[in-house]
Each structure stands twice: as C-alpha cells, then as structure tokens.
C-alpha cells in the first residue's frame, strides 16, 4: 500500500495504547532495564490471573478487587515516572511506592474477613495501611491521568472533614479522619467499591481481548479493510478514518488510543488526499471519539452502567447501537460533503489494498469478534463471553502464519493489555474515593434535590445543567470518572423527573465521552493535532463541528427513548429513518453543502430541520421535512455562510 512508504507512518504498531492519557512522545513506553523486565513479568502474571478467574470463576469480591488493584497499582509505578520529563529508569521513590502497595494489599487480603467489624473501631495498623493506600491511589491517578483527578479526590477527602463548617447544601455532620480512612480502605464502597470491581472482572478482560486481537494483526486488518472499502470513493482517506475508527472502537474502547493508532496512518493520508491539516486531524479526533460509543466494547463506563442499572451489558450495548450509528453516519456525511465542497477525489486505485486479498489474509480475525457478539446476544456473562472469544481468537489465529499467536506474541499481548488496563483501574480506584465520600456524606441526595430546585422541575434546563457539568468535568477527568461522578449525583435527579433510567445514564455517559472533543480542553483533538502537527485549538473547534450530532442525540433519546431501542419495532424503525434524515440535514448545515454550496438561511433551516427530524413524532417529522424542502429551494441565496469543519467556503 502506497501509504506505508510515508516515514510518518513507521512504527505505529510500537506505540503504547495508554487509555485516557494523551500520548507523550518524549516519554518512552518502557522504562527498561531490570525493573522493566519485572514490570513485564508482573503484567503477564496479572493477565494470566484475570483470564483464569474469567474462565474458572472469580474469588470473593474483596480478594478479587484487592488483588486486581494491588497488581495494577504496582505496575503503574513501574511504567509511569513521577515526572513526565524524566528519562531515567525506576527510582527509589517508585520502589517505595511499590512496596507500600504490596504491604497494604497483603494486609487487606490477610484480614479481609473481619474488615466490616473494624470500620467503626479501626486498629492503628489499619489506619496506617489505609492512609498508605489512599496516598498511593492519589499518586497513581496523578501519574496516569494528571493532577485534576487527584485534586478532585483530595477535595472530596477534605470535604468529608469540614462538613459542619460548610454553608448551605454542602453542610453535613462531618467525619473523623480515622472513620474516612477505614471506610475507604476496609469496605467495598470506597477504593474497592463497584468501579474497581467492574475493572477487576469485566474491563480488564475486554482490554486483554483487544490486545490479543491487535497483536494478531486485527488492528492492521481493520485499517486495510477500511482502505479497501472506502478508499475508492471521493474523500476516501477521510472515510477510511471514520470506518477504521469505528472498527478499532470495537477493540480499544478509548478515543485517545483510537486516535494514536489509526491517526498515525490516516492523518498523513488525508492530507495527501487534499484535506487541510486541521480538518484531517479533526476527522480522526471526531471518529476516534465515536469509537468509544460503538458496541460491543464501548469503554469502561458501559460496564459500570450495566451494574448501576442492574441490567446486562448486552442491554446497554443494544441501547447504544442507534445513537452510535447516527454519530458515525453524521461524521461520514460531513467528510463526504467536505470532499464535494473542496473537489477531493478518491485515492489512487493502485495505492489501495484489494478487498478480496485483505479478507483472505485477515478475514478469519472477524470470527472471534462475531463470537463475542453472539455470546453477548445469547446472554452469556460478559466475563465468560470475552474469555471464550479470546480463546477462539488464539485458535483461529493459527490459520495463517502472519496472524499466528505463538508464545512470544501471547506474552506480548498479556503485557500490553494489562498496561493498557492500568490507567483505567487507576481512574476507577480514584473515583472510588470520590464515590465513597459521596455515600458517607449524603452528597448525592443533596445534589439531586438541588438540581431539581435549580431547574425548577424543567427537564430541559436540568439536562442542560447536567450536560455542562459533564463537559466541565470531562476537561480534566477520564470519561469513566466523569460517568461515575454524575451517575451518582445527577442521574437520580433526571430519573425523578420522569426520564427512563437507561436514558438518564446514557445521557451522562455520552457527554462524558464527547467532552474529549469539546473546546477549550479537547484531549482527543489535542492528541490528533500532535500526530498531524496542527494547531490544537483549531483542531478542537473543527472536531466539535464534526461531532455536533453527539451533542444533540442525547437530548433526543431522553425525550424519545425509541432511539435507545425502547418501544415497538415499527416505532423504533420509524425513529431510525427520520433520525437518519435529520443527521443528513445537520451534516449539510455544518459543512455548508447540499446540492452545492448553500447560504446561511438554508443552513439555518437545515439545522432546525435536523433537530425536528431526530426527535421522533409526526408533527416534528412534518416540520423537519418542510424545512428541508425550503432549504433545498433556497440553496445558496442570502450569502455563502461559514463551514464549521472546513473553514471558510470558497
């Protein structure tokens, strides 16, 4: 493939998929030396342990969670330096933290059966161990996700102490430091609460599955398949980015990991195809963000959502299917309109892989993915489904020499998968501190009642407030942490206003993810800009325009749950058809192109038409179709307008 000759494309497979952290090109993926080998051995052991529990059954909740966090926290201090700029290997400080993790974890495992008896009267040893574990969790969060998550957890710790001295809704009875430490360390409602429990059972196994699939060549196969299918159409490079990011989302579940892997190939190719640099980066950022809402994986938060809602993960994936399709259709249409507007043609046929040859070389890698989907739809537990799919993957990989998962590749997949899971586990542990304090102080009930009071019972206003809170939190917190906080604080208030539980939680989930392309702090857009060497702010605003449907659809499925597969078959089908037409209108509005360049009045009419059409209903559909017809007739009259994604119209 011609693209493979570009020097910018070299070495993509060696890049680390660090979940929810912007890749730092100055930081080596492995700190090397003796301790680098120790880290690898630790990661391989952790991977085998989790596969064993997935196949033969988990330990008790306390043991599973403590062992999981102990292993992955130790790994964090081996592979993430205290300072990003540091080039040296593992330091004495790192080893002290690893020793602290080991001691605190072993103490908890040795005394877990009596832990509930000690919550109100903790021993001095337990206070020391608990304090050590809290400090270790905060430091691990700082290293993997930056200061914001650690400071947020620290603020909540202080809030637990200062309750009696705070004004208004923030006031509570207050708790002693010993009570807080014991609660967070010794119960399953703090560090070792539901988030880390989901990480220890479901999340790490799905991340391992993705690592195995990628190690067998699945990532390359998905990209080649996208090239082969989409490259022969106009704007083929950008359409390849959209399709490959959607496919990669099925195995990575992280927008930044998506951008790092597919973007290294697609961004230079889009630039050669005629897209401006900032548009190429924005397309990759918007498409990669959508990968996290694409079933069947959907990132860590989806598993936690299933636990909160007391439904199966399959139910969550099914509910997310239509909004995910609408998002990707919107981005796909926008890059198509942009190609028409700029006169961008297809990729040269000689540079494209042959579809048949691509399927012949890697098509067997679709078997384990199909098996995973089948198992989930057949109501297997996610753990059982993903472990058996991983075993099927290992077996079918031997059908071709190029994809064969021999022992070195298996060990490498275990190492990579657990390293990718470490930041997710860290976010879950740090979020456990926040949720533990919320549970102790009753802040969740207070916040929900305050949201109801602030919105005065107006659902739309409550949704807007929740959206803003999600986007602000998403500027500094990983999407998983954003979902956990607002699922506890805001979702109950939305449910009390009549919103269906799945819609309330999916609303929070969407905006926690879409925050990664929301200016001024658009983490995925910045990652893509770093790959393409573009202006981050310009990429962020362009990605925001391309992903605009992601800001609209959540409001629509709150009011019309048929977009979440709730209702009769005919109602769902009707909603899908009109929503697709609405997405078409919004894509044309954002890019300023319909049957040709269109003016500002037509674009405004199209945007309003899109809103009406995405919202199911006979009246709204009729108004939307009428506005679409009006925009079609007006065309480019009343001025050319401004294209959000591509810059000024020419």
TrEMBL record:
Coiled coil: none annotated. The keyword Membrane applies. Residues 133-567 form the TRAP C4-dicarboxylate transport system permease DctM subunit domain. This is C4-dicarboxylate ABC transporter. The chain crosses the membrane at residues 38-60, 66-82, 89-110, 145-170, 190-213, 279-304, 316-337, 421-447, 459-486, 507-529, 541-560, 572-594, 606-634. It comes from the Bacteria. InterPro entries: DctM, TRAP_DctM-Dct_fused. Keywords: Membrane, Transmembrane, Transmembrane helix.
């Amino acid at each position: 493939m011609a693209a493979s000759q570009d020097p910018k494309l070299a070495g993509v497979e060696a890049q680390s998929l660090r979940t929810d952290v912007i890749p730092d090109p100055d930081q080596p993926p492995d700190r090397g030396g003796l301790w680098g080998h120790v880290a690898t051995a630790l990661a391989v052991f952790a991977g085998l342990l989790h596969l064993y529990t997935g196949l033969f059954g988990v330990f008790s909740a306390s043991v599973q969670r403590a062992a999981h966090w102990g292993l992955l926290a130790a790994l964090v201090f081996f592979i993430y330096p205290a300072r990003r700029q540091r080039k040296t290997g593992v330091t004495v400080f790192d080893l002290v933290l690893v020793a602290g993790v080991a001691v605190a974890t072993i103490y908890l495992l040795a005394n877990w059966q009596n832990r509930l008896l000690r919550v109100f009267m903790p021993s001095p040893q337990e206070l020391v161990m608990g304090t050590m574990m809290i400090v270790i969790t905060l430091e691990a969060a700082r290293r993997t996700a930056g200061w914001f998550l650690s400071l947020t957890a620290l603020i909540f710790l202080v809030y637990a102490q200062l309750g009696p001295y705070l004004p208004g809704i923030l006031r509570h009875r207050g708790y002693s430091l010993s009570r807080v430490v014991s609660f967070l360390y010794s119960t399953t409602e703090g560090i070792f609460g539901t988030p880390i429990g989901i990480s220890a059972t479901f999340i790490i196994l799905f991340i391992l599955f993705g690592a195995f699939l990628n190690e067998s060549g699945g990532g390359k196969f998905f990209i080649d398949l996208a090239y082969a299918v989409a490259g022969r159409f106009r704007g083929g490079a950008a359409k390849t980015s959209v399709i490959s990011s959607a496919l990669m989302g099925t195995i990575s579940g992280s927008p930044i990991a998506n951008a790092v892997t597919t973007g290294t190939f697609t961004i230079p190719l889009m630039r050669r195809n005629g897209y401006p640099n900032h548009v190429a980066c924005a397309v990759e950022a918007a498409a990669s963000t959508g990968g996290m809402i694409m079933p069947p994986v959907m990132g860590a938060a989806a598993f936690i959502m299933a636990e909160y809602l007391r439904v199966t993960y399959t139910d969550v994936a099914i509910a997310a299917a239509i909004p995910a399709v609408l998002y990707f259709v919107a981005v796909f249409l926008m890059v198509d309109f942009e190609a028409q507007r700029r006169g961008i043609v297809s990729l040269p046929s000689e540079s494209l892989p042959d579809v048949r040859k691509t399927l012949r070389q890697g098509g067997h890698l679709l078997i384990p993915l199909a098996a995973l989907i089948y198992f989930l739809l057949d109501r297997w537990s996610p753990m059982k489904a993903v472990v058996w799919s991983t075993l099927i993957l290992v077996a079918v990989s031997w059908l071709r020499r190029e994809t064969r998962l021999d022992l070195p590749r298996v060990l490498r997949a275990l190492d990579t998968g657990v390293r990718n899971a470490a930041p997710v586990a860290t976010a879950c542990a740090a979020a456990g501190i926040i949720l533990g304090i919320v549970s102790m102080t009753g802040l969740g009930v207070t916040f929900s009642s305050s949201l109801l009071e602030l919105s005065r019972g107006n659902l739309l206003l409550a949704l807007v407030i929740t959206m803003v809170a999600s986007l602000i939190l998403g500027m500094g917190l990983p999407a998983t942490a954003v979902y956990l906080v607002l699922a506890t604080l805001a979702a109950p208030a939305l449910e009390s206003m009549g919103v269906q539980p799945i819609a309330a939680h999916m609303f929070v989930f969407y905006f926690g993810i879409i925050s990664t392309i929301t200016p001024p702090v658009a983490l995925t857009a910045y990652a893509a800009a770093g790959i393409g060497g573009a202006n981050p702010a310009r990429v962020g605003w362009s990605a925001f325009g391309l992903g605009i449907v992601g800001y609209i659809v959540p409001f629509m499925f709150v009011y019309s749950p048929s977009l979440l597969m709730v209702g009769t078959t005919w109602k769902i089908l009707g909603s899908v058809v009109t929503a697709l037409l609405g997405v078409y209108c919004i894509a044309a509005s954002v890019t300023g192109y319909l049957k040709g360049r269109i003016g500002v009045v037509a674009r405004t009419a199209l945007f309003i038409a899109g809103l009406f059409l995405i919202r199911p209903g006979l009246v709204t559909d009729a108004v939307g179709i009428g506005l679409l017809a009006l925009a079609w007739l007006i065309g480019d009259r009343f001025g050319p307008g401004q294209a959000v994604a591509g810059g000024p119209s020419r």
